[in-house]
Amino acid sequence: MAFFQTLSAPFNAYMQWLHLRWPAGTPEALPVVGQDGATSIPGLRIAGDLLGVPLLKFAADSGARAVQAFIAEHAFNDSQNSEILDLAIIGGGVAGLSAALEAQKAGLKFVVYEASEPFSTIVNFTNGKPIFTYPKAMQPAGDVELTATNKEELLAELRAQADKAQVLFENKRIDHVQRKSGELEICFTDKTPAVKAKRVLICTGRSGDYHKLNVPGEELEKVHNRLFDPKDYTSKKVLVVGGGDSALETAISLKQAGSVVQLSYRGAEFTRPKPENIQTAQRVLGDDILFESTVSRIEPDKVVLKTQQGEQDLPNEAVFVCLGREAPVDFFQRSGLEVHGLWTAKKIAGFALAFLTILFIYRWKKSNSEVSNWFYQQHWFPYNLDFSAWHETGSAVTKLLFEHLASPGFYYELAYCLVVLVFGIKRILRYKTPYIRWQTISLMSFQIIPLFLLPNFILPLLGQAGAFDSEAGAWLADQLFPLIPGTEIREYWRSVGFILAWPLFVWNVFTPTPNALWLAIAMFQTFVLIPWLVIRYGKGAYCGWICSCGALAETLGDAHRAKMPHGKFWNKLNMSGQVILAFAIALLILRITAWVLHGTSLGETIESMFNLGFTGLSLLGIPLNYATVVDYFLAGIIGLGLYFHFSGRTWCRFFCPLAALMHIYARFSRFRIFTEKEKCISCNACTAICHQGIDIMNFANKGAAMEDPECVRCSACVYTCPTGVLSFGRLGADGTIIPDSLPASPVLMRETAK
Ligand SMILES: Cc1cc2nc3c(=O)[nH]c(=O)nc-3n(C[C@H](O)[C@H](O)[C@H](O)COP(=O)(O)OP(=O)(O)OC[C@H]3O[C@@H](n4cnc5c(N)ncnc54)[C@H](O)[C@@H]3O)c2cc1C
Ligand code: SF4
Ligand code: SF4
Ligand code: SF4
After folding, report:
1. Residue 272 sits in which domain range?
2. Ligand 4 centre distance from Cα of residue 684 (Å)
3. Residue 436 CB less than 6 A away from ligand 3
4. CATH code, domain with 302
5. Is 720 in contact with 680 (CB distance < 8 Å)?
């Protein structure tokens, strides 16, 4: 055991240094939503806290925007059925009120269904609780006004607005929503007849169960999840458990009402609460904040805490467990809504289908595979196409095109470019920041010009025009695009090596005989150009602006970012890329050594070892060599097969050997995502959207600059952050911050425009 520990120590130290030192928090299970709260169920949108940002202003903003989006839908305006509701709003909180005001303004027939009482979340706040209306500069859409500074004022302000607009709340709990014959049905828990509506807006907040401690004694009567009136606990010995705003606010209120309060938090410092709450808690509680402590058990007259110093008994009369609430996942599932990270039978079936489709496409486009041979024998597409008549008369370009149209691989490449183009334009139109505009244009351009047009059209046409006939031209072409033995056809496909570097694209380096020019180009890219780029601008300069996999992930993959799993296990899996990189480096050493020792028996042995590792090795008929496992299976089939269920960056995050190499360079990079701690509301929206699995919130709420080498500079976190905490930049040689010149945060753009 000790031997293995000693043996693994350097690897563990390396993994810590490279990546595992970074935080690995996980986002909450929330429903999958698109723009303005749209869901996978037509006509059903979500607003308020369920979108991931638990703030009053965002609740108001999203409620109004969702109704505006409904009204803008053609199908909604064309719908003639006046018998049913135009809109059913589920949940009478701030988002529900904002939606109701908007619906009323538009003259819609609507009802707000509320399970307990209007604004019940706020009613349940501790009496006298101060209200912080962040972000201060934000002006939410819609008409809800939020000027109050404590709970009572806020309730009065909201009720007055509801009364003035005569918004009626119907006291009903919704069990689920279902879609039948093109209409939505709202089904109640009391089994009264379902109500039909053209559109439904879910604004139920995080009304699921409270998070639990899961310790003995939690069921005792003295254990509560929320505090109504702190005066009830004057002079009592109370323990508050938690490290968020609600824990701190509970502890502060109790202390101010004369309780003997201690606050237990498992972390070493507070990172999530608002700065005002941290300052007040530190002032009023002082040493009664017990950091790095966890509750072991609760007994009638005491609580046993586990601390750094061992177990400690605290005399106790009441416990408040303030760990927040889960989103009502059951409700979403009953309503057929997709929830991040949850697998249903339908999702598993969809995943299997997507995977098999990609597998089929890959076998179809691969020459000499069982599928392509079968298609060829049956004269199925594209082997049934006959362009011979056109061939006689067409121009050089059309002749070339017809040659390509006979090959399945060409359709794959064409489809890839079209998808990048179409989804790229969609991305530019959707996210209106200069960063996204130029990044997407760059990705589309690299994909279409040097990776598609150059090998398929530009180079072959230059060849036909005689560009490679002169002595110098022929030498260059022979080096870069040698003739396929026995033919007059040049390997123009090798030109993708101008953009895709070794060890992502290995075919220009792992050649049977040395190709000095490609070797020089590849080594220059991999060991000079890319390190310079990464050290100056971050790994994302290549992965987010140039590479073809990045092009697809940032365009087609845009809608699937939040599907990337987060957490410690997945962060460890990131290290797979290092194993593949080691394999690629071993092959490179074998390859070069075999060339150097060519003609000797040792050279022959090394050559066969290289061939085995690169293309030859298989076990029980299963290929276990680099070309099949890494280049074909992981990069192609796994990378695309998992696209719609694990995000578009599966290959990039876990397996890409070039990324693994760039992670080493990135440890010396000056690129950072800078954070403004005081603006961070710990909403976790940035972590949830990161398709490289980075726990960006954990940098932001500590005020630390994000330097996780995994970052591909996609800008999704910077764009999504509701308070403009995050910005791209790099550290100058003297430690000063040099911000990126391209704005990437709409919040910061609005603030600087003022
Ligand atoms: C302790 C605490 C302190 C906070 N402090 C602040 C602060 O200082 N500043 C700030 O900006 N934000 C604060 N917030 C966040 C803020 O309260 C929320 O962002 C806001 O209330 C969300 O509004 P909502 O309409 O999305 O949901 P909610 O206000 O939670 O409303 C949801 C409503 O839906 C109803 N409902 C649930 N399920 C059903 C169902 N099945 N059928 C019918 N009705 C249903 C509920 O009864 C509830 O009334 C705080 C939150 C908490 C918990
Ligand atoms: S991780 Fe690899 S495949 Fe993905 S974008 Fe970067 S270099 Fe390309
Ligand atoms: S820019 Fe943000 S979202 Fe994108 S990879 Fe980097 S940390 Fe993740
Ligand atoms: S950085 Fe922004 S998105 Fe991330 S947790 Fe903080 S406020 Fe939320």
Report:
1. 223-321
2. 6
3. no
4. 3.50.50.60
5. no
